[in-house]
Amino acid sequence: MQALAVSLGDESRASRLLSLTGLTPDDLRHRASEPAVLVAVLRFLEDHEPDLLTVADTLGIKPQELVAARIALEP
């Protein structure tokens, strides 16, 4: 959830997130805690290393932790 919040905090990244994942603002409002939505956000970050590194740095964690979180959330 923190990665989502940080991603949405940057207008350019948020726009790309919505565009590339197909998520809508309503999806994020109503389904943000669902594993499928969180996996989509983490995959989005993984697919663009600069975003992955920036979000991880902002959260004070290693990028590998975001990847591990995605793996843990996937069915």
Give your account of this protein's structure.
- With 75 residues, the chain is mainly alpha-helical.
- The chain contains six helices and no strands.
- The two termini are 18 Å apart.
List the helices and strands and how they pair.
Layout: H1 2-8, H2 11-21, H3 25-31, H4 35-46, H5 49-59, H6 63-73
What are the defining features of this structure?
75 residues, 6 helices, 79% helix, mainly alpha
Summarize the structure.
By secondary structure, the protein is mainly alpha-helical. It has helices spanning 2-8, 11-21, 25-31, 35-46, 49-59, 63-73.
Counting DSSP E segments of at least 2 residues, the number of strands comes to 0
Structural class: mainly alpha
Rg, Cα atoms, Å? 11 Å
Helix content: over 70%
Which sequence of SSEs, written as H and E, runs from N to C? Answer: HHHHHH
Average residue-wise pLDDT = 96
Total of helices: 6
Assess the beta-strand content as a share of residues. Answer: under 5%
Biggest β-sheet, characterized?
none
